[in-house]
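To: structure subgroup
Subject: Chain for Friday's discussion

All,

I'm putting the inputs and outputs inline so they're searchable in the archive.
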Amino acid sequence: MNKKVILASICTIIAFGVGISIYQSASVQQKYENILFLDGTFHPDTKQVEITFADKTQKTTGVVLEILGMEKSFQKTFAGHSFTISVPFDGEPQYGWKVVPITLVIEHPDFGKVGIKTDIHDEGKSSKTIFSQL
């Protein structure tokens, strides 16, 4: 009988923890999705990816941009609340754009450090943006 009570208690605690984690993740997503914007569009005619970031509050003080999965590491730091940059790419990687995500770490006086991640996409398409509180 004691083992069943202990097992039920452990399962309840785990379920509660998972529920809180999912709720917090959704809460972070909702908090930032209408304030912070990140996009990475591949333009095949110029063989470049255009990366755009904007903060509607205009309070972001610094941004570290990194494109993961490239043969040669790409990282750049920006000051200010918005930027657009073009990065040369020969074309879509063999295993698709998901293998070269765009990540940002932003510094914001009200939000602290926020992580943002999205995938590069072709013109006319879109990608999901993921936010995390760092």
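Points worth raising on Friday:
The chain has two domains: 1-32, 36-133.
The CA atoms of residues 117 and 130 lie 5 Å apart.

D.
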